[in-house]
């Protein structure tokens, strides 16, 4: 009996290796409360998300496309559910694609639902990299004009620790770390041809480079150390990514995409002759300074030059200089961690405002991550219109309330 028990115990241990399960994970925000995530399971191959859904007749939203119903019972419901196979997970700046689902059809197919009944289903995505413990589930962009409404979950907290190994230590000189990724257009997300150069942070004279083909792919095999990767391409601004791999104790592979912003050509101006009386002594002209975040409290700063289109969460290019100022602050203080806070005025639906402010804060976080800041150093929150700093009765007050701020949690 003892022998059988030990074998059974060994089998159970083998089965659970590499798995992490989070029951009822904490979720920062979501687009609907009819659906919920009951469990997130991470095995060696997939990120498995378990859902429950209960249709409420009080709500007018449908979560898939309606279609003809064959019998009398089904004719009492015009609501259906399905999963978008184009959905994905996003964590630490990386995208994890949809694989398959069970218990729910894929668009354009759909399943009817009825008030009061509970529906359970499971969706499989690519496996989150170990250490990614906060992700967003993006099914699609919701439009108030469409009957099809997507399920989006923002800030899903899960257990996903870095894997430990009992393998004997490998001498640093023998370790091989593979760094691979793509050069991507920051606006279109499409790969571009160019060049990637790496430099040792402790010895800038030690360097290497790879020419990158049109597919954008690059790869280096390096030893444990701290590196700066520099991406460049014709017609684009260069960009850097920092990787501290000095404490890695085993062979591993890392993915680091580099996002380049297109160079915007400056409009040519007609040259006008300068009269002698109009000439200015260059020593009297103050030099332009990089836009810096505005300090509003001891540990709080305002990004007053970060811009978005009305009702949208995408960063405008005019925001980059000030975001680069925040980026430099975090590079100068490698231990600094922050919380990015999004705020809106009181125009529109409060729930929509909260979601918009959360998405804007998230996009600021993604910008910093793409520039080389570790995701674990940046939290994000959306407060909508709940924390105004000025009177919403005036246009100037509303403009002040539409803002992004950050709080330094750890210097």
From TrEMBL:
Residues 295-411 form the OmpA-like domain. Pfam families: OmpA. Residues 1-18 form the signal peptide. It is found in: Cell outer membrane. InterPro entries: Bact_OuterMem_StrucFunc, CarboxyPept-like_regulatory, OMP_bac, OmpA-like, OmpA-like_sf. It comes from the Bacteria. Keywords: Cell outer membrane, Membrane, Signal. SUPFAM superfamilies: Carboxypeptidase regulatory domain-like, OmpA-like. PANTHER family: LIPOPROTEIN YIAD-RELATED (PTHR30329:SF21), STATOR ELEMENT OF FLAGELLAR MOTOR COMPLEX (PTHR30329). This is OmpA family protein.
């Amino acid at each position: 009996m003892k022998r059988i028990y030990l074998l059974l115990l060994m089998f159970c241990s083998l089965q659970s290796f590499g798995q992490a399960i989070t029951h009822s994970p904490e979720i920062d925000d979501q687009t609907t409360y009819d659906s919920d995530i009951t469990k997130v399971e991470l095995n060696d191959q997939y990120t498995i998300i378990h859902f429950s859904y209960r249709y409420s007749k009080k709500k007018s939203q449908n979560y898939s496309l309606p279609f003809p119903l064959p019998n009398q019972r089904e004719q009492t419901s015009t609501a259906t559910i399905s999963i978008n196979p184009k959905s994905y997970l996003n964590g630490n700046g990386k995208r994890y694609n949809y694989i398959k689902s069970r218990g729910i059809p894929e668009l354009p197919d759909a399943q009817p639902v009825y008030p009061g009944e509970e529906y359970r289903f499971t969706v499989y995505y690519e496996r989150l990299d170990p250490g990614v413990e906060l992700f967003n589930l993006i099914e699609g962009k919701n439009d108030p004009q469409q009957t099809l409404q997507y399920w989006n979950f923002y800030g899903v907290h899960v257990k996903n620790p870095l894997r430990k190994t009992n393998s004997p230590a490998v001498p640093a000189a023998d370790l091989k770390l593979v760094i691979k990724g793509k050069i991507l257009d920051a606006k279109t997300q499409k790969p571009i041809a160019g060049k990637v150069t790496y430099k040792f942070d402790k010895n800038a004279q030690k360097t290497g480079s790879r020419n990158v083909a049109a597919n954008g792919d690059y790869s280096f095999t390096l030893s444990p150390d701290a590196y700066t990767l520099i991406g460049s391409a014709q017609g684009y601004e260069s960009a850097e990514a920092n990787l501290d791999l000095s404490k890695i104790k085993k062979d591993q592979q890392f993915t680091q995409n580099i996002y380049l912003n297109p160079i915007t050509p400056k409009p040519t101006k007609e040259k006008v002759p300068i009269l002698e009386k109009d000439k200015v002594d260059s020593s009297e002209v103050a030099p332009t300074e990089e836009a810096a975040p505005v300090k509003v409290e001891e540990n709080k700063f305002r990004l007053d030059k970060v811009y978005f289109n009305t009702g949208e969460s995408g960063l405008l290019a005019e925001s980059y200089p000030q975001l680069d100022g925040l980026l430099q602050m975090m590079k100068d203080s490698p231990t600094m961690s922050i919380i990015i806070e999004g705020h809106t005025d009181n125009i529109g639906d409060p729930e929509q405002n909260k979601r918009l402010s959360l998405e804007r804060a998230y996009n600021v976080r993604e910008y910093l991550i793409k520039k080389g800041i570790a995701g674990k150093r940046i939290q994000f929150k959306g407060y909508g219109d709940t924390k105004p700093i000025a009177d919403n009765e005036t246009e100037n007050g509303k403009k002040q309330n539409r803002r992004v701020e950050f709080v330094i949690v750890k210097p």
